[in-house]
Amino acid sequence: MAQKSETEDKVVIFDTTLRDGEQSAGAGLTVEEKLRIAQQLADLGVDVIEAGFAASSPGDFEAVRRIAQEVKGPTICTLARAVPSDIEAAGKALEGVENARIHTFVSSSDIHLMHQMRKDREAIMNMAVEAVKQAKQYTDDVEFSPMDASRTDPVYLYAMLEAVIKAGATTVNIPDTVGYATPEEFGELIKGVFENVPNINDAVVSVHCHNDLGMAGANSLAAVENGARQVEGCINGLGERAGNAALEEVIMALETRPDHYQAGTNIDTKEIGNTSRMISGIFGFPVQYNKAIVGRNAFRHSSGIHQDGYLKDHSTFEIMEPETVGWRGEALVLTKLSGRAGLRARLADLGYRLKDEELSDVFTAFKDLADNKSEVDDRDLHALMSEQHRFADTDRTYQVGAVHVVCGNDTEPEAEITLMCPDGEERSAKKHGTGPVDAVCKAIDSVVDMDVELTEFAVNAVTEGIDALGDVTIRIEKDGSIYSGRGADTDIVVASAKAYVNAINRLLMIDTQDAGATATPSETV
Ligand code: KIV
Ligand code: ZN
């Protein structure tokens, strides 16, 4: 495997899972969930966390403010349109924070200027410069993005970059907003930026690539080859539409091929697996099996020839050691005989720091699981922790109590469900449905007295075997917004009830957080 040079450049890793990633349809997060993810991103060692878009809603403002105050290590950044009210909100959210960045942006392509902004180039240039100057009043660390840069007239783009750097931008970010560029073109664009913007060395050149044609990672790396030294992206490739560059892929390309890229990162790559699983669990977006670096098949060898070579020498069919990305295999298991200390140590290894009172609840849930399942491995523990976190806030959320179903091929399915309600009362309802899950959802609807549409339902086995935990992902729609929910249990009907209630809780919490919102990110970015 390629060796690292002592003098390699560092690429700044800018994680936007909590901002662009949260723009994935159906991915609303609560403030507490964002905090947990931000803490894990800090453990991963990302340099910058884009914690949200402070002006977009009170919930986002609060998330940015709390992450900036509570998460130590990375620079905390918030997005802001190039308008005074957004920058003021950004400044307020980051007030008193040492490593704070404001990331302001405005569209620069003629397509956007004509059809969206309805302003001419001069007016837009002015907005960009004024925004950077205003942001500088709050922090020295100011990033500017010309949105849709890859479809912008390069001459106008160069002039804009020169002007914002002169106004004080310390990072200039070149977005391929619609994922249109090819790696060769995008690399050329970055080269052009270095050759045509006279003051370019006064700022870090960053890139932000979307994955509409599946080229976000390749485009980001082509930019690094041409001098970019910050890459923006999301864990698991989350993000608007087809997502952003998958950060774990960019990071591992740099770490695996330093001979080619002559650049590395500050990332603790062993935390990649934990981060991916935690984010997948909280977002309710399963990771595709064959996903590079973090998919469950990424390090599995199946064909006879491959297995033969791999057993003789791993290097025959493996370019990275799985352990370097935190892959532990399935060898480490806990059983019902395992104690609290063993569980605590294993969870700490997976990135979950537990207070004593939290450990008690988790231990009870672990024992319940271990009673039904002979061996509990890391995948079960991640599912179990997601489950604990989902139902932690008992004052504001519904909790699933008893679930009874009657079903079969000669009877009309019927479910009776009891929920613990946020007001402290227990309420039950009994309903018929087309199947047991439909009956459960109808009974829950009746208790919470809400009309939502179930748009997606998927069950996955967390591990192999007939005793595996069933991991259910559900999406519901209400008033045009989508909310996801996940639930795990060895009984898939109970898992479905948990997932459905989780989606309803998310809907209620996000609605409460965002009451009084002025604009949502998807309306503006
Ligand atoms: O895709 C994009 O252009 C963005 C900008 C706000 C950087 O997300
Ligand atoms: Zn984006």
**Mean pLDDT reading:** 91
Ligand inventory: 3-methyl-2-oxobutanoic acid, zinc ion
How would you sum up the major sheet? 8 strands, parallel, barrel
Number of spatially distinct domains? 3
What is the strand tally? 16
CATH architecture of the largest domain: Alpha-Beta Barrel
Rg, rounded, reads 24 Å
Low-confidence stretches: 516-524
How much helicity do the residues have? 40-55%
End-to-end Cα distance, whole Å, is 41 Å
Task: Quickly name the level 1 CATH class of the largest domain.
Answer: Alpha Beta
What's the oligomerization state? single chain
Can you characterise this structure?
- The longest helix has 22 residues, at 492-513.
- Strands 2-3-4-5-6-7-8-9 form an 8-stranded parallel barrel, surrounded by 8 helices.
- With 525 residues, it is of the alpha/beta class.
- Strand 2 (12-15), helix 1 (31-44) and strand 3 (48-52) form a beta-alpha-beta unit.
- The chain contains 18 helices and 16 strands.
- It folds into 3 domains: 12-283, TIM Barrel; 330-390; 396-513, Alpha-isopropylmalate synthase LeuA, regulatory domain (Double Stranded RNA Binding Domain).
- 41% of the residues lie in helices and 19% in strands.
- The chain starts with 8 loop residues before the first strand and ends with a helix.
What's this entry about, in short?
The chain is α/β, with parallel strands linked by helices. The protein contains 18 helices and 16 strands.
